[in-house]
Amino acid sequence: MLKLTTLTENNDGFVSPEAMFNELIADNKALIKTIRNAHAVTDAADDIASAGLLEGYIDEAEKRLWFLFETNQNREDSAS
Predict the structure, then answer these.
(1) How does DSSP classify residue 13?
(2) To which H or E segment does residue 30 belong?
(3) Which residues are within 8 A (CB) of 30 and not within 5 positions of it... i.e. 6 or more apart?
(4) pLDDT in tens, 22-66
(5) Which of the 8 DSSP states describes residue 8?
(6) Which is the most buried residue in 3, 4, 23, 37, by most CB within 10 A?
(7) Is residue 24 within 8 Å of residue 64, measured between CB atoms?
(8) pTM of this prediction?
(9) 79 assigned to some structural domain
């Protein structure tokens, strides 16, 4: 499974909040891209059931990305 992963693991002893948010945002963007690629494969195979499942995962990941982005923006605004 580790050979198939596209996300890098952070084993640092300490990660700043800024770095954490940036990592989470980048990881979620990568996840969305991967799921969209899988969705294209299911579309090409006319696999409607799998495409529907993937659409749900894409929606959830996009909501999570939006939440992370907005939370990070609000955190930066309050720090100013």
Answers:
(1) S
(2) helix 17-44
(3) 6, 7
(4) 999 999 999 999 999 999 999 999 999 999 999 999 999 999 999
(5) P
(6) 23
(7) no
(8) 0.79
(9) yes
